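sry for the spam today, last one i promise. C-alpha cells for design, 592 residues
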C-alpha cells in the first residue's frame, strides 16, 4: 500500500473472551498479508458502509491491521472520526472457525470493522449462528484495543512498506523520490506513479526498499520505531542475483524521464515480470483460486477400519463350545497302558485287578478387556456419523480377535507383561500339552516348494493319531497355502487346482489362513499349521462374565468412558484332538 490512514490490533492472541474462549496465536496465521474490506460496525446491507480496506499482518501477539479509507463521503467521514478520536477500536468478522475445547485454533478473517470502543469494552465474541444452535462457524470478535493514526496530521509522508520480516518497516519520504526525478515542466512523480498497474507499483516498492536497505538509511516507523526489511507483498526473501543496486534504480528513473513514462522504463529494463520472483504465488489468472474449489467430500462415513484379515476370527470364536461356567475340570482315564488291558484266565491262577490312571486338569478364568474414552465436546461436534456406535464396533472387533488369537496360538506377550492373557486361563491349541495337541515336525526341504510338499505329507500322516471330533479344519499361513497351491507335477501342471481339492487331499474340511500365525516360532521351529475341530475346545464364562459393554461419564473432565470386557476360560477338553505342525527349516528360504 502506498499510504495508510491508521493501524491497530484487529484481534489479540491468548486473550480470554467474555464467553471463555481464547483466540490462539496461530488461529489467523493464514490471513497474513490478506486485504479485506473495511466496514462500519459490521453492517453489510448497504455498499455505503464499506469505508475502504485493511491489510492484515500476522504477529505472535495477534493480527495487526493497516487501514486505508476510500474517497467516498462515508470514507472521508470515518477518516475524520478516527483522526478526531471519536472512533478508536476495531473488530473482525471471521468464519470457518475451528475449536478444541475453549481454544479457537483456526479461522478466516472476512472483514475488519470500525466499532465504537465505548460500546465494546474488553474482549468478547459475538456469535453469528447460521446453521442451528450447535454451530459456531462464524463470529464477530472484539479485541478491545485502540487504534492509532498511521500518519502525521500534515500528511506529508507516504509510507512504502517493505516487509522483510514481521517486526520491521521502512518509511520513504516523497522528497527522497523527487530528488531522483524532478522537473516543474513535466509530470510529477506522483502523477507517473499513479499511472502504474499494481504489478508495476510492487516493482517500485522492491526497488526503493532494496536501495534504502543497501545504504543503511533505515527510517523508523512513526509508532514502533522498528525497521522493515521485506516487501509487504513478498513472502520469501528476494535472491541475491535478483537484487537491484542503487545505480540500477537511478538508471530506471533517469530513463523514465527520457521516455516520459516510468512504465516504459520498467519494461525497457526487463522488470515488467519482476513478480515472477514470488515463487509461492502465480502471476496470472486468479490468485488463490483454490478458494473457489468445492469442499472435499468424505467417501468413508464413518471411517473405514484398517485391520488384519478378520475372516478367520468367527471361524475360531464361533466354532468353539460354550458353557455357562468358567471353571473347567477335565478328567480322563488312560486306558492305553498294559495294566488296563483285559487278561486271560487259567484255571487255578489268581485273577489280577485292572489298573489304569486318571488324568485331571483345571482351567480358571481371566478377564480380557478393551477400554476407550472420548471428550464429550468431540462427540457433540462430530455430526456426520455416530462416533460412539462406530467406536463400540471397533472395540468388539478387536476383543473377538484377541480372544481368538489366544485360543489358537496365544497372545504372544511376554509372561512378565501386565497385559498377558496367561496360558493357564485360555490355553492355546498350538502349545497345549501333548495329551491334547499332537506335535508334528517338517524336517525336510530346503526351498519353500519342498517344504510345502513335505508339509502335506506330514499333515496326512499325523491324522492316524488324531482322536478329535469329526473332520477338522486346517489353520495355516497365507504363505504356506500359496506354496501348496503352486506345487506342480513332473509335467509342470498344478497338482491342486483349488483350495477344496487341496483340503480333500489333506483330509480336512477346509483351509483357513490366519494372519497372526505369520512368523510365530518356538525352540527354533516355525509354526506352519494347526489342524483342529474347535468343537473340542471349550470356552466358559459364568453369569455376568460374558461379553459386556459399560459406559461411564467423568464429570470432572467432561469425558465419556467405555469398557468392553469378558471373564472367561478356554481349553481343549478332548485328548489328541489337535495337531500342531512346525517346520525345522525357516519359511524364508527363496523358492527354488
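last one done:
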Amino acid at each position: 500500500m502506498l499510504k495508510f490512514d491508521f493501524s491497530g490490533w484487529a484481534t489479540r492472541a491468548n486473550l480470554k473472551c467474555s464467553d471463555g474462549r481464547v483466540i490462539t496465536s496461530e488461529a489467523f496465521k493464514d490471513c497474513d498479508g490478506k486485504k479485506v474490506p473495511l466496514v462500519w460496525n459490521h453492517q453489510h446491507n448497504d455498499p455505503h458502509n464499506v469505508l475502504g480496506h485493511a491489510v492484515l499482518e500476522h504477529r505472535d501477539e495477534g493480527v495487526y491491521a493497516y487501514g486505508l479509507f476510500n474517497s467516498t463521503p462515508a470514507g472521508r467521514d470515518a477518516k475524520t472520526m478516527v483522526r478526531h478520536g471519536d472512533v478508536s477500536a476495531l473488530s473482525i468478522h471471521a468464519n470457518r472457525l475451528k475449536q478444541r475445547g475453549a481454544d479457537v485454533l483456526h479461522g478466516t478473517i472476512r472483514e475488519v470493522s470500525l466499532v465504537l470502543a465505548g460500546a465494546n469494552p474488553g474482549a468478547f465474541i459475538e456469535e453469528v449462528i447460521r446453521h442451528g444452535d450447535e454451530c459456531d462457524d462464524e463470529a464477530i470478535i472484539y479485541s478491545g484495543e485502540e487504534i492509532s493514526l498511521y500518519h502525521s496530521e500534515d500528511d506529508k509522508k507516504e509510507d512504502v512498506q517493505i516487509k522483510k520480516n514481521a517486526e520491521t518497516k521502512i518509511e520513504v519520504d516523497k522528497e527522497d523520490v523527487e530528488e531522483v526525478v524532478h522537473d516543474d515542466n513535466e509530470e510529477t512523480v506522483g502523477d507517473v506513479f499513479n499511472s502504474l498497474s499494481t504489478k508495476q507499483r510492487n516493482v517500485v516498492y522492491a526497488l526503493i526498499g532494496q536501495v534504502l536497505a543497501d545504504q543503511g538509511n533505515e527510517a523508523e516507523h512513526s509508532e514502533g520505531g522498528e525497521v522493515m526489511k521485506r516487501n509487504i507483498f513478498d513472502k520469501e526473501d528476494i535472491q541475491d542475483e535478483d537484487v537491484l543496486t542503487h545505480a540500477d534504480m537511478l538508471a530506471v528513473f533517469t530513463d523514465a524521464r527520457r521516455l516520459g513514462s516510468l512504465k516504459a522504463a520498467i519494461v525497457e529494463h526487463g522488470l515488467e515480470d519482476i513478480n515472477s520472483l514470488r515463487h509461492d504465488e502465480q502471476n496470472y489468472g486468479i490468485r488463490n483460486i483454490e478458494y473457489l474449489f468445492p469442499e472435499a467430500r468424505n467417501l468413508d462415513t464413518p471411517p473405514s477400519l484398517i485391520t488384519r484379515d478378520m475372516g478367520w476370527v468367527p471361524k475360531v470364536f464361533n466354532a468353539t463350545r460354550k458353557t455357562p461356567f468358567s471353571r473347567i475340570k477335565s478328567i480322563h482315564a488312560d486306558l492305553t497302558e498294559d495294566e488296563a488291558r483285559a487278561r486271560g484266565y487259567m484255571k487255578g491262577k489268581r485273577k489280577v485287578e485292572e489298573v489304569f490312571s486318571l488324568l485331571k486338569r483345571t482351567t480358571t478364568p481371566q478377564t480380557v478387556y478393551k477400554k476407550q474414552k472420548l471428550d464429550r465436546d468431540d462427540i457433540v461436534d462430530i455430526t456426520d456419523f455416530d462416533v460412539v456406535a462406530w467406536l463400540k464396533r471397533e472395540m468388539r472387533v478387536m476383543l473377538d480377535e484377541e480372544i481368538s488369537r489366544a485360543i489358537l496360538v496365544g497372545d504372544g506377550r511376554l509372561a512378565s507383561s501386565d497385559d498377558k492373557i496367561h496360558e493357564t486361563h485360555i490355553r492355546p491349541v498350538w502349545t497345549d500339552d501333548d495329551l491334547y495337541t499332537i506335535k508334528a515336525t517338517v524336517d525336510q526341504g530346503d526351498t519353500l516348494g519342498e517344504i510345502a510338499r513335505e508339509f502335506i505329507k506330514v499333515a496326512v500322516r499325523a491324522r492316524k493319531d488324531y482322536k478329535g471330533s469329526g473332520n477338522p479344519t486346517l489353520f495355516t499361513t497365507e504363505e504356506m497355502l500359496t506354496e501348496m497351491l503352486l506345487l506342480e507335477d513332473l509335467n509342470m501342471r498344478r497338482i491342486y487346482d483349488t483350495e477344496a481339492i487341496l483340503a480333500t487331499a489333506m483330509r480336512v474340511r477346509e483351509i483357513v489362513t490366519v494372519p497372526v500365525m505369520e512368523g510365530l516360532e518356538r525352540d527354533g521351529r516355525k509354526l506352519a499349521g494347526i489342524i483342529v475341530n474347535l468343537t473340542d475346545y471349550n470356552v466358559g464364562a459364568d453369569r455376568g462374565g460374558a461379553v459386556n459393554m459399560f459406559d461411564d461419564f467423568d464429570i470432572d473432565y467432561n469425558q465419556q468412558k467405555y469398557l468392553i470386557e469378558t471373564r472367561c476360560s478356554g481349553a481343549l477338553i478332548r485328548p489328541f484332538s489337535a495337531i500342531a505342525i512346525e517346520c525345522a527349516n525357516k519359511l524364508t528360504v527363496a523358492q527354488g
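DSSP finds twelve helices and 23 strands in the chain. ok im logging off now
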